């Protein structure tokens, strides 16, 4: 199920994690996402780029059904996770979101302690049988979130008291504490300074070993740095989806070229 | 046509100094200074009004917490109380309050003889009138509770009558006593002598808080006990019903209900209900809870239900506002780690909204505590001398309420009730202050969880 608009691309890996087919999203009367077909691969960082309002965040939120919380939003077409239709009536979005974690644009730690922030997901999903196991999960998640060393001495301190970059890494640790299979990131660095951004990017690269990561970004440099695959959205259409190197060096569509060279955006 | 905006035609801007204010700046600054002055004036007026109000209430009402007592040795004469000496409580109970009045008269006579005080031409009967009409009744209650004391002499502290009490609070003077049929100058002279002998004392009066209401002609015995208990019971009912129902309603409407015309209509009507005159809720309560459901009149349960109806809109509006104020990112965060909607609301949104909810609830409760009109309609205005029982039965017993008690007392003729009404207002205000303090404490506690 490759994008019809670029049939020439050969994907080396065959492990497809998420397959979207003819996805349409409507906000009331507005047709926000038009006919998107995309295959997201396992253990790969996939970047969604495109000008503001092109629908990349909307599409990202379809992948774990966060759009369900918006009354006027309607999704058509089908999205398969490991071959299962996530919009099937039998699917409980709560179970889906445990498998497909999400990190948001603005760091949004719960106004609780650092420990409770990370432990919340495992607690509600019953991943730990006792306090010892929970401690272990929290530590592991914080280590993988590359923030353990900074917070290990103050796990009881409020998560909201951390700096912006730390908060975002805490949110990432919180998202991976539930052992998701896919991690969605909606412009995770847009509120961060360059140093924090570098830390988060490094983290994303590490996460690739275990998860599929889908990241929406406004920064083309970031997409080039962290992703292996890049999808370019424009006005609700998926214009081009290819290896990141190809997109940035040899785009097929002239809209993609215009965007990455800065003529539209 | 000339293009006025084109730079070529524009006169060069004159050079101005930053050290001189131009006319426009002056006007702006003057407007700002005026606005500040209005603010200061408004606040000053408000503060003065508040100080005036509080000082007048305190001035009139603080004396209600002090009362004049007369201490006498009373010989519990068996010849009067227990004629056949059987000690049978049923027979002793047959002696009415009137039967105890002579005992007090006698003890005055004994006192005159012993300490040599007394006013010429004044009979012991007149002296006995200095004791509150409640005095013999209290003596009788004491004897019925301790029948074995008959035949002995007990030292008893009686309430002085309202006029004697008024004499020591400046309400009654020798001059006014001359034209008052309830008190004579001789009685006041005797009172002074008793005071000198240490038998008459004006002191702190717990009775004002613990006693039941008393009739028109014994203001000295009137207390707030029943009203405080009644108000307390009603607040319990309101809190237990309005808080859970209000919060649950708000959560449903704000977080779960679909947005459509039905919820819009409900929303508008809740806002309207908050503005409905409270007496209308009284009529509703009378029709539904008393006439239809058959609940007893004057009962705290009915009062509580009516006040619940009145408080619900306040709580719902406050709760919805504070739920709305919780940033959506918190909901997203919870949903994003796989919490269900309900978990997101109860684990994250509700704790963050709690300070606002509590404030709204306490404001609603305070409003309910001070509400009079609806209670008049459901019979809380009745004269209640019996304390309501312990909960839960007590909720169905007749009781008074603080604001209604104030209303009641202000209607009575005896000037002694003026201080009592003001005293009741002080009690009401203290209760409100306590509730606000609790609200602030709770807020702090919840907010400290960052």
Task: Indicate the topology.
The complex is a heterodimer of chains A (265) and B (450).
Chain A: E1 16-27, E2 30-41, E3 45-49, H1 56-62, E4 73-81, E5 84-85, H2 93-99, E6 100-103, H3 114-125, H4 131-144, H5 148-151, H6 164-177, E7 182-186, H7 194-207, E8 212-216, H8 220-226, E9 229-234, E10 237-243, H9 244-249, H10 254-260
Parallel strand pairs in A: 3-8, 3-9, 6-7, 7-8
Antiparallel strand pairs in A: 1-2, 1-4, 4-5, 9-10
Chain B: H1 23-61, E1 66-75, H2 78-81, H3 89-92, H4 101-115, H5 124-128, H6 134-145, E2 153-159, H7 162-168, H8 174-178, H9 185-196, E3 200-204, H10 207-210, H11 225-256, H12 261-274, H13 278-292, H14 300-325, H15 328-336, H16 341-369, H17 373-377, H18 402-410, H19 416-447
Antiparallel strand pairs in B: 1-2, 1-3
Helix pairs in contact in B: 1-19, 11-14, 11-16, 11-18, 12-14, 13-14, 14-16, 15-16, 16-19, 18-19
The CATH homologous superfamily of the largest domain in chain B = MetI-like
Which regions of chain A contain 5 or more consecutive residues with pLDDT less than 50?
A: 1-13
User: Remind me, CATH topology of the domain at 13-108 and 180-260 in chain A?
Assistant: Rossmann fold
Rg measurement of chain A, Å: 18 Å
Using the alpha-carbon principal axes, give the shape of chain B.
extended
Strand order of the largest sheet of chain A: 6-7-8-3-9-10
Number of strands of chain B: 3
CATH class of the largest domain in chain B: Mainly Alpha
N-to-C SSE series of chain B? HEHHHHHEHHHEHHHHHHHHHH
Largest β sheet strand count, sense and barrel closure of chain A: 6 strands, mixed
The side-by-side strand order for the widest beta sheet of chain B comes to 2-1-3
User: DSSP strand (E) fraction of chain B?
Assistant: under 5%
Termini separation of chain A comes to 29 Å
Q: Would you identify the regions of chain B where 5 or more consecutive residues have pLDDT less than 50?
A: none
Structural class of chain A: alpha/beta
């Amino acid at each position: 199920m490759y994008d019809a608009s670029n049939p020439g691309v050969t994907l080396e890996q065959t492990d497809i994690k998420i397959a979207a087919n003819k996805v349409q999203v409507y906000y009331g009367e507005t047709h926000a996402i038009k006919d998107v077909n995309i295959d997201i691969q396992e253990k790969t960082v996939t970047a969604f780029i495109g000008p503001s309002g092109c629908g990349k965040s909307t599409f990202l939120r379809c992948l774990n059904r966060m759009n369900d919380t918006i009354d006027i939003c309607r999704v058509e077409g089908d999205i398969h996770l490991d071959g299962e239709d996530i919009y099937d009536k039998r699917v409980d979005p709560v179970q889906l979101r445990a498998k497909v974690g999400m990190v948001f644009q603005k760091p949004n730690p719960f106004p609780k302690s650092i420990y409770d922030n990370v432990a919340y997901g495992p607690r509600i999903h019953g991943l730990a049988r006792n306090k010892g196991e929970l401690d272990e999960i929290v530590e592991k998640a914080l280590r993988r979130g590359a923030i353990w060393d900074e917070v290990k001495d103050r796990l009881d301190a409020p998560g909201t008291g951390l700096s912006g970059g730390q908060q975002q890494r805490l949110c990432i640790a919180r998202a991976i504490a539930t052992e998701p299979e896919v991690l969605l990131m909606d412009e995770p660095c847009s509120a961060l300074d360059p140093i924090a951004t570098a830390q988060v990017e490094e983290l994303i690269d590490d996460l690739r070993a275990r998860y599929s990561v889908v990241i929406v970004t406004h920064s083309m440099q970031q997409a080039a740095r962290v992703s292996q695959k890049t999808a370019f959205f424009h006005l609700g259409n998926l214009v081009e989806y290819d290896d990141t190197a190809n997109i940035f060096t040899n785009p097929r569509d002239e809209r993609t070229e215009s965007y990455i060279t800065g003529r539209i955006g | 046509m000339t293009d006025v905006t084109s730079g070529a035609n524009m006169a060069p801007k004159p050079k101005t100094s930053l050290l001189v204010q131009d006319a426009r700046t002056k006007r702006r600054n003057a407007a700002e200074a005026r606005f500040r002055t209005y603010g200061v004036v408004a606040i000053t007026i408000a503060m003065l009004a508040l100080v005036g109000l509080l000082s007048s209430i305190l001035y009139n009402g603080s004396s209600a917490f002090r009362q004049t007592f007369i201490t006498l040795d009373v010989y519990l004469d068996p010849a009067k109380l227990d004629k056949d000496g059987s000690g049978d409580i049923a027979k002793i109970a047959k002696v009415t309050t009137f039967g105890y009045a002579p005992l007090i008269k006698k003890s005055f006579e004994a006192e005159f003889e012993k300490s040599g005080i007394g006013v010429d031409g004044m009979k012991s009967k007149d002296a006995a009138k200095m004791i509150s009409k409640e005095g013999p009744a209290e003596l009788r209650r004491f004897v019925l509770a301790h029948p074995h004391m008959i035949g002995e002499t007990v030292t008893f502290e009686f309430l002085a009558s309202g006029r004697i009490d008024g004499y020591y609070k400046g309400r009654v003077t020798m001059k006014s006593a001359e034209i008052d049929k309830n008190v004579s100058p001789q009685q006041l002279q005797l009172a002074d002598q008793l005071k000198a002998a240490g038998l008459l004392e004006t002191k702190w009066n717990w009775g004002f808080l613990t006693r039941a209401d008393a009739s028109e002609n014994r203001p000295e015995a009137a207390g707030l006990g029943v009203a405080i208990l009644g108000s307390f019971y009603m607040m319990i009912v309101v809190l237990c019903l309005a808080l859970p129902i209000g919060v649950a309603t708000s959560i449903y409407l704000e977080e779960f209900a679909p947005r459509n015309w039905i919820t819009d209509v409900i929303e508008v009507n809740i806002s309207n209900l908050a503005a409905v005159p409270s007496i209308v809720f009284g009529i509703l309560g009378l029709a539904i809870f008393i006439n239809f459901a058959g609940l007893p009149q004057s009962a705290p349960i009915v009062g509580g239900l009516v006040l619940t109806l009145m408080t619900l809109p306040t709580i719902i509006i406050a709760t919805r506002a504070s739920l709305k104020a919780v940033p959506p990112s918190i909901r997203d965060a919870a949903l994003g780690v796989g919490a269900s909607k309900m978990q997101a609301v109860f684990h994250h949104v509700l704790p963050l909204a709690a300070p606002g909810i509590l404030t709204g609830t306490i404001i609603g409760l305070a409003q309910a505590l001070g509400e009079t009109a609806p209670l008049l309609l459901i019979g809380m205005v009745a004269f209640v001398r019996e304390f309501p029982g312990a909960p839960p039965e007590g909720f169905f017993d007749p009781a008074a309420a603080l604001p209604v008690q104030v209303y009641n007392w202000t209607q009575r003729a005896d000037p002694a009730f003026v201080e009592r009404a003001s005293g009741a207002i002080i009690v009401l205000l203290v209760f409100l202050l306590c509730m606000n303090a609790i609200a602030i404490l709770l807020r702090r506690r919840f907010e400290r969880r960052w």
